[in-house]
Design a protein that fits this description.
heterodimer, A: alpha/beta, Rossmann fold, Alpha-Beta Plaits, 6-stranded mixed beta sheet, 4-stranded antiparallel beta sheet, 11 helices, 14 strands, B: alpha+beta, 5-stranded antiparallel beta sheet, 3-stranded mixed beta sheet, 10 strands, globular
């Protein structure tokens, strides 16, 4: 389990993280979303023991990370700006990882490279951006680390490669029960892979939760009743948003779908439709409730 | 603390592997170039006895580059955000990274200097005309291993503090040079405010106005014997045109201690390094400016020195140069000019503090009476006398005889008449005392000059110097002589060999008349106040060297060099003709003839002193020599028959 407690970090006058708290349970894919400059990368660097937090502490499995090579055996970090030594092949990079990661599996790396049709002995510098991302990914996976951190992994990657990466991550998670933390400034990129989502804004986690739970407990209702009606008509329903155009109202409702459905049925609606919400819509409405303009956050 | 955990060999291998091309280039360039230069030193085909300074030129230069490149390669990851993310997230802690890289760097440097030393040892064993005592190689190895490691660990501190390469280099330079520079400038500038007296109870002449028995000497302190660390010492020695060996026990000891201290300091600083501060000089702009101010000290001192006598325009010129420097520094170390107002404030503050400081450093505020330094017979360690007056330019002799001190340092009492009529000689002397070197030109009259010559030439130091000066003249010079022998010479030689009973002088003179005059030896014999023992020693020395190297050297000359049919000799080229072989053949034949004759013939070729010795010796001296000959004859014969080629 990753525990981040009261972590703060400043770069000169700029406060990047402010008293941030977050807990990431094992075996999950945790998506960390935030606008550019919101502190996602800094947080990952602190969690991985690259940077020292000004305040607060980070513990993984109950132990400090900074300068703790034993704990770091279980961590692997793929930054947004990838790094490969000049003139190195995947194999060369594999040897580097192998020198430091006790559980690094070169054969596994070869298998993954074969699956992705990446030449192990071709210089990485000659690869396309997407291929380089795949290289970084398979090298990280081959470490067999229990905690994997991918910063903006899908950035600039075409949909085909994105799907491949997602598939690889999903397979790996299935096999190893690893915990994966992904960051992105684009919510849609994490929607179909993350189990949990955290929204980072102004140095803190603004909102976090289980995606399935969020999706199950929030939905859009289109309803039309006989006669005139307004928001007050639906008293007792946890409503995040209400809009009425003509005789049809659209509501974003939070709560148990079955219970709310029964409540609405009692009003004998002429029209009653339940529409699914995209994750982005959920966040937009959730942020509105919290008093934020979503477009300012992501 | 588990020390084994502090070193990760696998990481070191991988870390070196990533820069293998650069590393290989840096590590090969020194041994290869050094070897080439070493071999080129032998191209004169003279037997050279090389000293530490002769073999350390390139290595000294490399001291400022190789360890720094090595440090930057090993710790390269700290300068780029991408590589910081990569290495920083790896399961290796900073303590291990620092110690692994430091130990690795030290091992590489030791191997590098070791290989360079071994190559030179190998070359000196193969090359016939180069000779270096093993002790010199050991000194070379110790001196440069420590010096390179020293620069390496200093650079490690630099990169632990700074966020980019340029600032790392600046910090490294400041640690290496700033303190020695300030000390050196201060000392040199303040020596002019001293008056050096010599206290001499036995000197006959009293100096008017001085305390009894104390004489103002005119000596000026040239410099204090320094024990700077090698990187600073090498530059300072160059500045003061000092050819003293860089090997200095005190400096080496100091450097060894500093290496340990700097490793510990680097270790602590590296743990505390904020890796997010990369690609910029420092996290704090004020620290950046402070470091910039420190770099301005040497600049300001130099500019102050140049413009100290200038008027206000000179001051403005100084100001302009420093201001430009200030912005250029920012561009190099920060790649931008920011905080202009703060910059200017710091600049003015620096100027206000450093301008007077430079004046103080350069001795502008010295006032009152000059400081008096008194030298006595007891605190003078030695006096080094330039031997130009003995027609030995470029040579000096170190005197420790107190009576010579008195002769050199007591003032000349000259009447007006004498000042016009008497001849005076000017002699350059250096007095070593109080850990300093004082120098001046003294002026002495003919009588004292005669006394001085006698005293010096009788001294052991002069005798030893004469012996030492002959050591490098040996076979190479003789080989040149062979090439100059004409047919007539050869005929005379053969004739002389066939007539063993003729007068010695008759035997030598004709040949002497035709053969090349070895000027140094001629001078030696011209001033033949040398003792008989020394003459004998010289002859023996010649024989020793000759017998040891004759065979291979002559073979080399006859076989390796261009052999042309006709005899020619030009200033810069050797042309060995058949005479070479012919003479060799004559000499070889002599192995079966009388030992004495062979001795004489070889001695003739080897030096003219021997000729003089024989022609000038009295009966007693000749007897002494003959006794010496009889003792060495057997050896001579054996060595000629079976030359020692080692």
């Amino acid at each position: 389990m990753i525990e981040i407690k009261n972590v703060s970090k400043r770069y000169g006058d700029l406060e990047v993280l402010s008293n941030l708290n977050c807990t990431i349970k094992d075996g999950l894919i945790y998506g960390l979303v935030g606008a550019n400059g919101s502190g996602k990368s800094t947080l990952l660097r602190i969690v991985n023991g690259i940077y020292l937090a000004d305040d607060g502490d980070v513990k993984i499995d109950g132990e400090d990370v900074l300068d703790n090579s034993e704990v770091k055996q279980n961590l692997v970090f793929v930054p947004d700006d990838l790094f490969f030594y000049s003139g190195y092949t995947i194999y060369d990079m594999g040897l580097f990882y192998q020198a430091l990661y006790k559980k690094f599996d070169m054969k596994y790396l070869e298998r993954l490279a074969k699956t992705l049709k990446l030449d192990m002995h071709k210089k990485i510098g000659t690869f396309s951006k997407g291929m380089k991302r795949q290289c970084a990914l398979i090298l990280a996976i081959a470490t067999n680390a229990r905690y994997m951190f991918f910063d903006e992994t899908f950035d600039g990657v075409d949909p085909v490669v994105r799907n491949v990466i997602k598939k690889i991550l999903a397979n790996h998670l299935e096999e190893t029960n690893a915990t994966i933390v992904l960051t992105s400034h684009n919510l849609r990129e994490l929607e179909d892979i993350a189990d949990n989502l955290g929204l980072l804004h102004k140095g803190g986690i603004l909102f976090e939760g289980d995606i399935d739970e969020i999706k199950t407990n929030m939905f859009k209702v289109q309803i039309s009743l006989k006669g005139d009606f307004d928001k007050e008509t639906f008293e007792g329903i946890d409503m995040l948003n209400f809009k009425k155009v003509g005789s049809i109202a659209t509501m974003i409702v939070k709560g148990d779908k079955e219970k709310i459905g029964k409540q609405l049925e009692k009003l004998k609606p002429i029209i009653l439709d339940y529409l699914p919400l995209s994750l982005e819509e959920i966040f937009i409405y959730q942020m509105e409730v919290l008093g934020y303009e979503f477009s300012e956050i992501i | 603390m588990n020390l084994a955990k502090l070193f990760n060999g696998k990481y070191l291998v991988q870390n070196l592997k990533k820069s293998r091309v650069t590393l290989a280039f840096v590590l090969l360039i020194l041994p290869i170039l050094n070897l080439l230069i070493f071999c080129m030193q032998t191209s004169t085909n003279k037997i050279s006895v090389l000293a530490l300074n002769d073999i350390s030129g390139l290595t000294t230069f490399g001291m400022y580059i190789i360890p720094i490149i090595l440090s930057l390669i090993l710790f390269s990851y700290v300068f780029k955000r991408k590589s910081i993310d990569f290495i920083g997230s790896m399961p290796i802690d900073r303590k291990t990274i620092f110690t692994t890289n430091t130990v690795g760097g030290i091992l590489i440097i030791t191997a590098l200097i070791g290989i360079t030393t071994l190559l030179m040892i190998g070359a000196s064993a193969i090359l016939p005309n180069i000779y270096i005592p093993m002790g010199i190689f050991l000194d070379y190895f110790v001196l440069f291993t420590l010096s390179y490691i020293f620069v390496f660990v200093v650079c490690n501190i630099g990169l632990s503090l700074a966020g980019n390469v340029a600032t790392t280099l600046v910090i490294t330079a400041l640690i290496l040079f700033l303190a020695p520079f300030l000390h050196f400038v201060y000392q040199n500038s303040h020596y002019y405010y001293e008056e050096v007296y010599y206290e001499c109870d036995q000197c006959a002449i009293s100096d008017t106005g001085a305390e009894s028995g104390k004489y103002q000497t005119g000596l000026t302190r040239e410099y204090q014997t320094s024990h700077y660390t090698t990187p600073a010492e090498a530059i300072i020695e160059t500045l003061r045109n000092d050819t003293t060996s860089l090997y200095n026990d005190v400096a080496l000891g100091r450097m060894a201690l500093l290496i340990i201290l700097y490793i510990l300091v680097g270790f602590v600083l590296f743990q505390r390094k904020e890796l997010e501060i990369c690609e910029i000089s420092f996290k704090n702009i004020k620290v950046h400016m402070l470091v910039k101010s420190l770099t301005m000290i040497p600049m300001l001192v130099f500019i102050y020195e140049i413009t100290r006598d200038a008027d206000f325009i000179g001051f403005l010129f100084t100001l302009a140069i420093l201001l430009i420097y200030s912005f250029v520094y920012d561009l190099i170390t920060k790649k931008s000019i920011s905080h202009v107002r703060l910059n200017l404030l710091f600049f003015l503050g620096t100027l206000v503090i450093l301008y007077p400081f430079s004046g103080w450093l350069l001795g502008d505020y010295e006032n009152g009476s000059p400081r008096r330094v008194t030298l006595t017979e007891d605190n003078i360690e030695k006096v080094e006398v330039d031997l130009s007056f003995l027609d030995r330019p470029e040579e000096t002799i170190k005197i420790t005889d107190k009576t010579v001190y008195n002769l050199l340092l007591q003032p000349e009492e000259v009447t007006e008449e004498e000042a016009v009529t008497k001849n005076y000689y000017s002699i350059y002397i250096e007095v070593h005392a109080n850990n300093s070197i004082y120098d001046t030109y003294i002026s002495i009259d003919e009588d004292r000059m005669k006394q001085l010559k006698e005293m010096i030439m009788k001294s052991d130091a002069y005798q030893n110097l004469s012996k030492a000066s002959l050591e490098n003249i040996d076979v190479a010079t003789l080989s040149e002589d062979y090439a100059k022998l004409t047919d007539q010479d050869i005929a005379l030689l053969k004739s002389a060999i066939d007539q063993p009973d003729q007068e010695k002088s008759t035997f030598y003179l004709p040949i002497t008349a035709y053969t090349y005059q070895n000027h140094e030896l001629t001078e030696e014999t011209y001033y033949s106040n040398l003792t008989d023992t020394l003459n004998q020693t010289m002859v023996e020395r010649y024989n020793e060297v000759w017998n040891k190297y004759r065979k291979e050297h002559s073979d080399a000359r006859c076989n390796w060099m261009d052999i042309i049919d006709e005899y020619t000799y030009e200033t810069n080229t050797y042309a060995i003709n058949e005479k070479c072989k012919e003479i060799l053949s004559i000499l070889e034949k002599q192995t079966t003839n009388s030992k004495e004759k062979l001795y004489r013939i070889t001695a003739h070729f080897e030096n003219n002193v021997y000729l003089n010795y024989y022609t000038n010796l009295d009966a007693e001296a000749l007897k002494t020599l003959n006794m010496a000959n009889s003792e060495t004859d057997e050896i001579v014969e054996e060595e000629v028959v079976t030359p020692d080629v080692d």
